[in-house]
Design goal:
- The complex is a heterotrimer of chains A (319), B (418) and C (168).
- By secondary structure, chain A is α/β, with parallel strands linked by helices.
- Chain A has 2 domains: 23-148 and 304-316, Rossmann fold, CATH 3.40.50.1370; 150-301, Aspartate/ornithine carbamoyltransferase (Rossmann fold, 3-Layer(aba) Sandwich), CATH 3.40.50.
- Chain A contains 11 helices and 9 strands.
- Chain A has helices spanning 23-37, 64-76, 97-105, 121-131, 150-164, 182-193, 223-227, 251-258, 262-265, 288-291, 298-317, and strands at 54-59, 80-85, 111-116, 138-144, 171-175, 198-202, 218-220, 232-235, 273-275.
- In chain A, β1 (54-59), α2 (64-76) and β2 form a beta-alpha-beta unit.
- Chain B is α/β, with parallel strands linked by helices.
- In chain B, 30% of the residues lie in helices and 23% in strands.
- The longest helix of chain B has 17 residues, at 204-220.
- Chain C has helices at residues 9-20, 36-48, 66-69, 100-110; strands at residues 29-33, 55-57, 88-96, 117-125, 137-141, 148-154, 160-166.
- In chain C, the strands form 2 sheets. Chain C has a 5-stranded parallel β-sheet with strand order 2-1-3-4-5, sandwiched between helices.
- The chains are: A alpha/beta (319), B alpha/beta (418), C alpha/beta (168).
- Chains in contact: A-B, A-C.
- The interface between A and B is medium-sized, with 28 and 22 residues.
Amino acid sequence: MHNPQLNAHGELTHLLSIDGLPRDVLVHILDTASSFLEVSDRDVKKVPLLRGKSVFNLFFENSTRTRTTFEIAAKRLSADVINLDVARSSTAKGETLLDTVDNLVSMHADMFVVRHASSGAPYLIADHLRRTGRDDVHVVNAGDGRHAHPTQGLLDMYTIRHFKKDFSGLKVAIVGDILHSRVARSDIQALGALGAAEVRAVGPRTLLPTDIEQMGARVFYDLREGVRDCDVVIMLRLQNERMNGALLPSAKEYFRSYGLTPEVLALARPDAIVMHPGPMNRGVEIDSEVADGPQAVILSQVTFGIAVRMAVMSILAGN
Amino acid sequence: MQEQSIHIKGGRLIDPRNSIDAQADVFVANGVVCAVGDAPLGFAADSTIDAAGCIVCPGLVDLSARLTNLDAELLAAVAGGVTSVACPPDTKPPLDEHSLVERLVQRSESIGLARVFPVGALTQQLAGEKLAEMAGLSRAGCIAFSQATRPIFDTQILFRAMQYAATFGFAIRLQPQDHYLALNGVAHDGEVASRLGLAAIPVCAETLAISTALHLARETGVRLHLSKISSAAGIALIREAREGGVKVTCDVAIHHLHLSETDVGYFDSHARFDPPLRASSDRAALRAAVAEGVAAVCSDHTPVDEDGKQLPFAEATPGAVGLELLLPLVCKWAAEDGVPLAAAIARVTSDPAVALGVDAGSLGVGQRADICVFDPEEPWCVRPEALHSQGKNTPFLGWELSGRVRTTLVGGRVVFSI
Amino acid sequence: MSLPTLPDAEAQCVALAEMIRPNLQPGTMLVGIHSGGAWIARRLSELLGLPGEIGLIDVSFYRDDFGEKGLHPQVKPTSIPFEVEGRPLILVDDVLYTGRTTRAAINELFDYGRPASVRLAVLADRGGRELPIYAEFCAWQVELADSQELVLEPDASGRLQWRYVDHA
């Protein structure tokens, strides 16, 4: 099946998911991101790559954090950024997703950064653009339902590469609500593509997807065993809603069994790094002492996130 | 109009009920089959249908087709060789009122294409609370009662509904899916749904509901038909029950015979079904069960317009059209698995007729002349323009199929011909 | 067109340094354009005895052909380890041709601050200018056909040498 992320020349034209992207495409994005890091240290924090291009942030699911980093990244590329607050806009009046897209395309949108609550929404948009002959418009998935958050996966990989250099010997534990996590899926796929030695999915049975082993992760129900000897520990955010629907009894019990405390972290390798996609729930999935401690690289993730997004947008816009 | 005398000449007659699979002519007069093989004495054909190179079989009996636009879908039916259609009660408004049923039956008769056998609502408004007036609905033309895809939460209500139906000898059809285990699910609970981040429906949602239905059917003695079985475990339960003497019939939707969870691909909403497409091992078990005759095959024809499909997967309306694909897809399955054509045709003619309890699906002398003449070799590509249905939503778009209906007769009249 | 014989690139670097030396303003910093300009700038910096590190510029983000060619696959980091504001700069490149690379480099430099002046030093000027750019310091004037390319690269021992590539 033809990968909808690639154009007729086999170049990346949309970033929808890490799934199906060859290793050298991922490495190319990471390498390009390195060059963009330096831009943020200049006086004029801009390069003219996307000058005159319009980037539309189409966020159907609220997220000021992610939207802001995409906005900063696009502006540092000299693009014009338009933020669409979809909740209050035409979609609320019953306009379909694709009608909204068509309207914006006719306003000369060059790139859509899309976040949507339904898995697969960006694919629908990309397919629609292809069928309406708009190969010049690019889609970046900023998170679709539980499916994928590819720029987060990439910036997590950038962070790991920055601190650990080589993926081949690494043991990485991903802890928490993997069932509902698009970050976890993207991380697992990226780690697999980049050749991590072992990827572990750690959590209670209710929060682990069926057949997660098929995605390349080893399942652990016990946090201590899951974290033991790991080089990287990625903690996922636990949302309040998970206490409904009988997935978990309470945040308190979750923290006792799956919270990352200094004592648990000590079971990982001494030079292990702790990551979190944010925002953190202190005292639920992660202890403040760990979050503020020397092994946590969470703030670096944010910095790298802007460079990675600049890399993604430049590569897409140039293809 | 006076029915013509028709001589269907030179075809291979496959009539599974009467165990016929041979080169034999069929003679039609006064709306019924008047002879098979040799012309009856004094027969003068008003017209002859050249069936050389074709198969002549009973018009197909489809256990489930939604007739959203009656004219278009009944035409689609006969274009697909389907002469009897059972339509589920989830119309708008639902078929829980005898005048609605009467109107449906009258309109279908005046359109004069495929015969419509309405399935009535088991409970009022399909809400699963109060019993519908089954006796009245039966008099109006309903041949069975069901909840379509709507749940009955209260097992005591389900029990009572079965007892009531059994009182009158009415049949009950259920699509077995536990409401709570399937809640919000849109795809099979397996590797694909996990990777794509789609809310999942585990197999136990089906097996639990099948077990409940079988137990209650045994208790009440009601005639039970379980529709759209999607899993290996589910079909195994039914096979076991039948071997144990329980009077239960079931069907599998044609798309479950050919497709599996991987056909969801990149969130293709044309592959969104209720129940969902499951693992390839489930598909293999369903194919085996259909070959054995444990299950009949239906189209589950469900027209959905563009707006209903051009949505993210979880938001799209499930279902696909299938009246015009049922026959060629059944032939394709039979050819792939080495199932004799006669057995395959039985699964969409005589077997569904038995499950529905209607007089159809066979071509014995004196039977209504509902006949399908089709060329099993003729290739065609599934394209929107090739479909007569108002809906063009099918995951089989672009497939090259063999098997084209040339002529369809209903009650001895030609209602479709290419 | 028959190709001129290739001169010794290392010797040309020395010659270039001698052209610059009498015209060197105090506080001048060299900025080499990746990759050829970077190698030459290092040699010039040593030969001229300039203190401190040279600047290195990758113009990938400032090129004017991004729309047709996309992002260059090998982007190297730009590093300007000194204050650009008010400083005389010499941009260094291996081959001056259309002038577009030089324009991109100037634009990029100006995003770091406002230099006092920017002068251009190249090893080879092959004509074919498409913009009003000129090299104040140039070791070798040479004419080539459009299909011919002049490439500077280090040999196994690290000595810079020229090579022709014919795209015809």
